[in-house]
Amino acid sequence: MNIGITVYPTYGGSGIVGSELGKELARRGHTVHFIASALPTRLTELNERVRFHEVEMMSYPLFEHQPYTLALATKMATVAETEQLDLLHVHYAIPHSISAILARESLRPQRRLPVITTLHGTDITLVGADRSYLPITRYGIAQSDGVTAISHYLKRETEETFGYSDVEVIPNFVCGSEYARQPRPELRAELSPANEPLLVHVSNFRPVKRPVDCVEILARVRGRGINARLAMVGDGSERGRAEHRARCLGLEEFCTFVGKQPRIVDYLSVADVLLLPSEQESFGLAALEAMACEVPVVASRVGGIPEVVTDGETGCLSEVGDVAKMGADAAALCADETARRAMGRRARESALSRYNTDLVIPQYIEFYERILAADHD
Ligand code: GMT
Fold first, then answer.
1. Whether domain 185-355 has CATH 3.40.605.10
2. What CATH number should be reported for the domain whose range is 2-173+357-375?
3. Index of the ligand 1 atom closest to the CA of residue 304
4. Fewer CB within 10 Å, N side or C side of the chain?
5. Domain map of the chain by residue range?
6. Where are the beta strands (DSSP E) in the chain?
7. Ligand 1 pocket check for 280: Cβ under 6 Å
8. pTM here?
9. What is the mean predicted confidence (pLDDT) over 253-263?
């Protein structure tokens, strides 16, 4: 197949999933055309089967804001014609599904161009549910030829928020050979110089991720007499607040903020516990990647996380904001290496038996084939 994929190229779960999906489809013989405003973060290598088409923005004095949605639609239609695309697969509903629908409609007299929208979470739970965006998001979903969601939770949310139920659940996935615990003694020594227990948080530091809670959790762990450290991986609007809280609690020397990193697997390989205290999380890709690296997860019992992390088996779940309980759970894991390693092994087994690329990528391919085979007017 010739597949057009659109993602936000910035640091975010939907961009990662869309990029990794494209690479996996190319490995299976398909040609993937990324259509985006910039090269997506994880798309490090382009080749004959993984191509990139940049959306060009025209600046004109009359435009107070450049109309990205229209520029994207134009690019989608052009690429669909020149590259003979079979379908467009967009990740994140706003505005990508609207652009794709415009592209499809503009080409309708000449060719069929099915649009598949994958919902990732905040496009529904935050942005799409905002009253001002709700009608257009509902339209984008209802007008797509196929809709997928990354968890059963998100499918339910889509039904509740938009009254739309024809949604296929295709979860996030992880490559078991890429995401496996690898010895990284230098990095471990840098983040934990005396081999202290190491807590790791990975996110885009948006308010919804509650990164400040990670600092609070570290304080609770250390308050129990455990000399733990914390590595904060990523960047975003809440980073300053988290750093400030670490200073206020006198913990700055035990917290390392490493910013955005290209190889998350290295940080997961040296982690003892992953912290994911999110306010909302429709799946929790960071949790899945940590589990594949044998890292138990201490997380909020929210959204799709309970589908991924089994409380007491592969991690520990708590109510959002309950940093006392999360601190106690993390401390218990830090203190008992045998139990922690056993939980880590179960986490990898659970992650790969359900979310390995070889299980999930064929679900996307079958979905594409079903949409292409469907009757159309
Ligand atoms: O909040 C993020 O991490 C970014 C966001 C996105 O759409 O870019 O991530 C969402 O998609 C990920 C990949 O499908 C999911 O694993 C995350 O759970 C989800 N984030 C939220 O729901 C907050």
1. no
2. 3.40.50.2000
3. 18
4. C
5. 2-173+357-375, 185-355
6. 2-6, 31-36, 50-54, 87-91, 115-119, 146-149, 168-169, 198-202, 229-233, 255-259, 273-276, 297-300, 315-318
7. yes
8. 0.95
9. 96
